[in-house]
Amino acid sequence: MTSPRQPDSSQFSSTAPTDDASAPRTRTALVLGGGGSTGNAWLIGVIAGLADVGVDVTRSDVIIGTSAGSTAAAQITGTSPAELLATILSDASQHRPASSGPTGGRPATGTVVDQMARTGRIIADAADAPDLRRRLSAAALDLDAASDGEWSARWRVMVAARLPNPRWPERTMLITALDARTGAAVVFDRHSGVALVDAVAASTSSGVPYRVGDDRYLDGGYRRNENADLAAGFDRVVVLSPFGGRSRYPLEWGMHLAVQVAELRAGGSRVETIFPDGAAEHLFGVNAMDPSLRPPAARAGYEQGRNLGERLTGFWQAAREGGVG
């Protein structure tokens, strides 16, 4: 099996195709951050709303997905955002979480709070971001040792049921995760030798690590919740962050979205960030794993996407038409 790559953003900056090698072409990136079950629904809603007003961000040259954003990335490359949105809105009983809890089931609010308390203690004890990832990985391996060994198989079935197409798209899509054996961040793509469902399952495994062969992987949000820095070198970047760019980690660790955006802009990228409206914030946070809130989260995202059409039309359409200004 080909190993996933380390997340050196420079290796992805030239992957976008060009129509004419003699003429510069604006390269675009769509970044989909983590945000649990409701975050996944909100992401789908925003993308569908934008598409309805003529802004098709699914045609970006690279799509970067983390945690619930990895599920959304795989979904929008497998079928239309409109169909995904309709499924969420028409079947409110379809309560499928977009990220795992420590038991791999349907986490209740209490389980989410327990998970946040557990990781909060690890964050408090960590000296820096690399130390945090090592500690999170060690704790996850302890959970793995205490599990029945069947969790990954059950989680794979749940993730596979949400993907409209089990195959990697031909376009460039990057799925982030953490190597639970070392704490190192990794990136999966269609050349990694890992099935798409396994990449998404790994990126959404926040408690017990997900097994791929002899390897163990954790949620990609433990590196950065958006991993927007992987879009370095792309001319225009749209970042959708269900958690509003916030992070539970100390600012000096450089894991907040504001730091990532500053890095991108310093490298010459033009960046637009999209966060949930204030009126929808109650749908996230400790409520992010409540599947009954997926329909309202999707509706909120859809309306927000439609309302953002004017703001993003010039930004995105100029890029799609080949302009660099």
UniProtKB/TrEMBL annotation:
Gene3D superfamilies: Cytosolic phospholipase A2 catalytic domain. Residues 30-231 form the PNPLA domain. GO terms for biological process: lipid metabolic process. InterPro entries: Acyl_Trfase/lysoPLipase (IPR016035), PNPLA_dom (IPR002641). The keyword Lipid metabolism applies. Residues 1-25 are annotated as: Disordered. Pfam families: Patatin (PF01734). Keywords: Lipid metabolism. This is Patatin. It comes from the Bacteria. Residues 1-17 have a biased composition (Polar residues).
